[in-house]
Structures are given as C-alpha cells and as structure tokens.
Description:
The chain is of the alpha/beta class. The protein folds into three domains: 30-197, P-loop containing nucleotide triphosphate hydrolases (Rossmann fold, 3-Layer(aba) Sandwich), CATH 3.40.50.300; 201-284, Helicase, Ruva Protein, domain 3; 287-390, Winged helix-like DNA-binding domain superfamily/Winged helix DNA-binding domain (Arc Repressor Mutant, subunit A, Orthogonal Bundle). It contains 14 helices and nine strands. Strands 2-3-4-1-5 form a five-stranded parallel sheet, with helices on both faces. It has a four-stranded antiparallel sheet with strand order 6-7-9-8. Helix 5 (148-157) links the parallel strand 3 and strand 4. The radius of gyration is 26 Å and the shape is globular.
Amino acid sequence: MDFNEIDESAIFKNKSVLSPHYVPQELLYREEELKKMMVGVAPVFKGFKPKNILIYGKTGTGKSITSKKLLEKMNDMKDARVKGIYLNCRVYDTRYKVFQKLVSELKNEFSKTGYSFALLYETVLDWIEEKERFIIIILDEIDFVKDIDALVYSLTRANDDIQKGGLSMIGISNKIQFKQKLGERSKSSICEEEIVFQTYNSSQLQGILNQRISLSFKEGVITPGAVNLASAIAARENGDARYALNLLLRSGELAERKKTGKVTDKEVEEARKMAEEDKASELISSLPAHQQLVLYALALTSADVSYKKLVEDGGEKYYFSGEVYDHYTKISKKFGFEPISARWYREYIHELEEMGLISSIHSGSGVRGQTTLLRLALENSKVKKIIEKTLMK
C-alpha cells in the first residue's frame, strides 16, 4: 500500500480547523477585546512606547487566538520598525529562555547557547536602539514562568535603559490573581492595561462551531442536534470553546470509525464521556502517590462484592471511611510506602472530594456513631486501571 491508496475521509474536509491553534479569518465575539489590545499597541506605529497589557480569562475564552489575530493586524501594517513575537511559556518557562528566544528571533545568526543573561539583555536593547525599533512580546500562560518576578521586572524596566524605541509585553494568564506572584517593584513598574475575557455562552459557542464546521467537515455531515448538544455541554463546562471544538473533532472521528456518514448527538455524547475519562486520567496521574493509593483503596473496596460494610443512599453505595483507610494502609505497605496518619488521610479525602474524584456523606440514622461514608465519582475499574498504569508500572 502507498499513500495514494488510503481512502479519503467521508467525514472531514480539514481537521486542522478544529485545532485550538487555528486562527480563523474572522474572529467571532472578541471584537471589543481585540480593539482594546490594538489601542494599547497603536502608539508604536507613531514612534511612541506602547502600554503593557495583562489579559485574564478561563481556558477556551479566546485569549490566545485574539493575541495571534493582533499579531496578524500588526504584520499587515508592514512596519519594519515593529516586531511582534509570540511565546508559549509552558515551553519558555524561565527569564533566560525567554530572552534567549527573543535574541534568536531578532538575530538568526545568533547561537542559542553559551551566553550570559546580561549579554542577551544587552543584545535585545542594542537591536531596539539600532534603528529605533519596537518589540511587542506576547507571553501566553505567563504564570508558568518559574522566575516570573525577575522576567516581568527585566521586561518592564528595559525601557529605562532604552533611549530610542521600546519594549512592551502582553501577558496572558488564566488566573486573575496572577499579579500576586509579583514583587512590589515589578508591580509598580508594569503600568499595564488589564483586559478580562468573559466565558462564551451557549449561543456564542454555537456560532463558533458553525464557523469551523463549514471549513472542517464535509457538507451535511453534522446534524443540527450535534451542534446544539456540543455547545450546550461546553457552556456548562465554563464556556470553553476549545472543549466544544474537541467534542466535534472526537465526534467526527467516532462517526468515521463507525462508518455512519453522520455526526449526531449520539456521537457527541460518546465524545463527552471519552473527554471526561481523559480529564480524570490526567488529573489522577498527576496526584501525589498517597492520594492515588487512597483512591486505589476505595476502588478495591467498591469492587469487592463480598464487602458488607456499606450504606445505600439514593441507590448509591457508600463505604465506611475507616474501612477504606484500613485497605489503604495494607496497600501502602504492600507497595513499599509508609502509610500516612489518619489525620492526613482525612485531609486527603477532603482534597479528593474538592477535585470531584470522590463524594462523601456523614452517616445518619441506622448507623452507630458518626462516621464518614465514601464513594468514587468514577467507575472503580477505570480508577484502578489509571493508577495501575501510572503508580504501579
């Protein structure tokens, strides 16, 4: 077989349009936010220093796409003095890495390693002053930078060392409390404009999905019910457009595997369950070892059909916290861990409940004494499988 023999998709026209990295030609529902960003940056095209901008908003509210659209608008001006640079701070997560990348973007012949921070800093400033240039650096997910205070201070104070031209930053964060990580000198030097991106509502998500469907799916493949359901589910999930697009992508892949030729609300519902399982798997895998062991003990207790110490509540089976703790101590020793105390165990139970991984109730009438009863929020077989794959491999 060669590549020419692989069948063309009966569902998709262009999957990449559903990617969170795709920047649509027309930006929906973020015109005001884009305008505010353009107003903040506009002074550079008249030779004046622009504002620093901080952008806040939950995941999937259009912050990154709007910032990339701003870069497109800046490039359309074709002003050689103005340079826009976008960096993902999950990758460039230290001040040194950020300036190293800045220098490599400005001077292609520059080696990537072996230079002090001071030399990188001076190289950026020299490039700016050489022809009275301006740099707008967009730092997406800025809170991932380990030495964030040092980075912000260096970027914001750079203008004091520049006679002509300027450097400004656009910081993007999911956390409105981002500035609390900064020291007083950084806070006082940042002098920023703040823009908050609100979550999308169901109607807006529907509009975003319909815009992408015409480019990503073949005509008539997606039913209106599928679009309505995907947007309604995503609206409940904090108005996350990325989540809505991912639901459509997975739904299309399911329809493709089943060879149905249509994406209906049935595929969307299946995709939702898959997405929830992936999210749970990622969350559980990132937990400390002892929290995973507590979950594992509850999963084993739930799976034991001969286990009698449980309470029925509204058709759900809850298990005695003390019995789960006993299971936990045995499992910990079996796998070479020293069990945590009962006090720390109760603290872990509280944290796991806050994450939505377990639920608890206090025993009522018919149970001697006051005790806590527990149950998993996910299927015990899936929890066991996730933990066995990560902690016990």
